[in-house]
Amino acid sequence: MAADAEVRATLGDMHRRMMAVAEDLSAAEAWTVVSFLRRMGEAVADPRAGN
Predict the structure, then answer these.
(1) CA dihedral 48, 35, 17, 3 (to 10 degrees)
(2) Do the beta carbons of residue 42 and residue 51 sit within 8 Å?
(3) This protein's superkingdom (predicted)?
């Protein structure tokens, strides 16, 4: 189970770094990211799924 602990530690550290970046975004930057991700989601959505 050492590998499991290593993965959890790595992902935990990565998650903390990602959250720090997200928390440092201004409101305008956050809006831009959210808008971009929504539009990208729409662009790659399966048109047969009724999206």
Answers:
(1) 0
(2) yes
(3) Bacteria
The token pair that represents 34 in the structure block: 């959210």
Q: b/e for 34-44, b at 16 or more Cβ within 10 A?
A: eeeeeeeeeee
> What's the residue count for the chain?
51
Residue with tokens 């399966």: 46
Contact 36, 25 (CB under 8 A): no
Amino acid 11 reads L
Amino acid letter, 19: M
User: pLDDT, tens digit, for every residue of 5-40?
Assistant: 888 888 888 889 999 999 999 999 999 999 999 999
Single-letter residue type at 46: D
